[in-house]
Specification:
The protein has 435 residues and is mainly beta. It folds into four domains: 87 residues, Tailspike Protein, Chain, CATH 2.170.14; 94 residues, no CATH class; 111 residues, Tail fiber receptor-binding protein, CATH 2.80.20; 119 residues, Jelly Rolls. It contains one helix and 38 strands.
Length: 435
């Protein structure tokens, strides 16, 4: 259906019907003296001067949106008239509509379909059918589109709704929030953590590389796109800042390193806590996952280490114990993270100055039932009796699960002050990202 085309230019005349050559047109927000901009193009990108100076024919291109107070003066500044006018505030189209020219309205309601060169809608747009635009669709308010949208470009600064595609849809249809949430809910991750490798920087700082992980409540993915360097000073957001959750840093203390996330601000950071299971999260951060642990030694320095995936090796091992063996089981503390169970990596040595019999020792996880070792049976290390001043020795490297206090169980075949053992802890295997 064809429609009347409005004049491309507006002409203004005086009381005698003569063109207002050199006259002016000023536009304001109605009821105020606040100027309101008009335009020379339908896209609203080329603003008119305010006031507008009319040409020799008393004409000008004046396009706008909404209501205006228009004040017209002749070239000498005499008032011709002042009147409220404007573009229609609401456009309702109940049938399919076609416009070869751009459509400029404040509000748009289309029951069926619409076709236009372009559309500039400053209010809300509701289109019940399909929209086909040769140019750009710009909507400032809420947009509800039931059918398909075809346009060279679209800019929405308000809320936009669209039909949610089916879960198996792999077309170029718009993916709504509901569609994305359904798709993500069906994803099973092969791992709940990647990247996030830590490293020793200095005696007072450590670094965490980029990566990401699933939160420990399995509800949120925590992205960490840029690596940070952190200290054990009080927490402050960002790199080259503190990471301690609460209190003052202490010597001879293990600190669990957490990746934390603020869902509102959508930012991640790194936190250190002496609590291996329940850190004190900074304000706004509600999601977390445990990624590593570092040791602040007796001198108040971060112990030097290297990390390879879940494995930590100290630059220098810790001589954790040198004792005589006993037939009674004993828990021995090693220099490994506390608060959770890890696997300790250690070297052990057994030596004997006892001539009475063979000797043996067994190292066990506290999760195992303690047993009495035998030099010819179940043991970790065994030595023969000492003869003619010789000191038989036996040594080996071990990988053994600890309890949450970083301890292993040690039991000897006999009790003797002449038979000793020693342990040097070289590192640990850490359950990163796991609860």
């Amino acid at each position: 259906m064809a429609s009347p085309i409005p004049p491309g230019k507006l002409q203004f005349i005086d009381g005698a019907g003569n063109p207002l050559a050199g006259g002016t047109v000023a536009t304001y927000i109605p009821g105020t003296t606040t100027p309101k901009t008009t335009y020379q193009d339908f896209a609203g990108t080329i603003a008119n001067a305010n006031p507008i100076t009319l040409d020799a024919n008393g004409e000008a291109v004046i396009l706008g949106t909404g209501e205006y107070l228009m004040t017209v003066n002749d070239s000498l500044g005499n008032l011709i008239w002042s009147q409220v006018t404007g573009v229609a505030q609401n456009t309702d189209l109940t049938d399919g509509s076609t416009s070869a020219a751009p459509l400029v309205v404040s509000y748009l309601t289309v029951t069926n379909t619409i076709k236009a060169a372009a559309a500039n809608i400053t209010g809300a747009a509701s289109i019940g059918g399909n929209a086909t635009l040769g140019g750009t669709l710009a909507v400032t308010g809420t947009t509800a589109l039931t059918g398909a949208l075809t346009a060279s470009a679209a800019a929405f600064s308000g809320t936009t709704t669209a039909p949610t595609p089916g879960s198996s849809d792999n077309s170029t249809n718009v993916a709504t929030t509901a569609f994305v949430n359904t798709a993500l809910a069906g994803i099973t991750l092969a791992t709940n953590l990647y990247g996030l490798i830590t490293s020793y920087v200095s005696s007072t700082s450590y670094a965490v590389a980029s990566g990401g992980a699933l939160s420990d409540d399995f509800s949120t993915f925590l992205p960490f796109p840029t690596g940070f360097t952190k200290t054990l000073a009080s927490f402050a957001a960002g790199t080259n800042a503190g990471s301690l959750d609460t209190g003052a840093v202490a010597n001879s203390t293990w600190y669990t390193i957490w990746l934390i996330y603020n869902p509102t601000a959508r930012v991640s950071d790194i936190l250190a806590s002496a609590n291996a299971t329940s850190p004190t999260l900074p304000s706004g951060y509600t999601k977390k996952v445990r990624i590593w642990a570092i040791y602040n030694n007796s001198s108040g320095s971060i112990a030097n280490y290297t990390q390879n995936l879940n494995e930590c090796l100290y630059a220098t091992g810790f001589a954790d114990t040198a004792n005589t063996i006993s037939a009674s089981s004993a828990l021995v503390s090693l220099t490994v993270p506390k608060g959770i169970k890890v696997n300790a990596l250690f070297n052990a040595n057994l030596y004997s100055n006892y001539a009475g019999s063979d000797a043996a020792i067994i190292f066990q996880s506290p999760d195992q039932s303690a047993i009495t070792p035998s030099a010819t049976g179940n043991s970790s290390l065994a030595v023969a009796p000492s003869y003619s001043g010789t000191v038989p020795t036996s040594s080996c490297a071990f990988n053994l699960r600890t309890d949450t206090s970083g301890r292993i169980n040690v039991t000897g075949s006999i009790s003797s002050a002449s038979i000793g053992y020693s342990i040097v802890t070289n590192g640990f295997v850490y359950p990163r990202g796991l609860t």
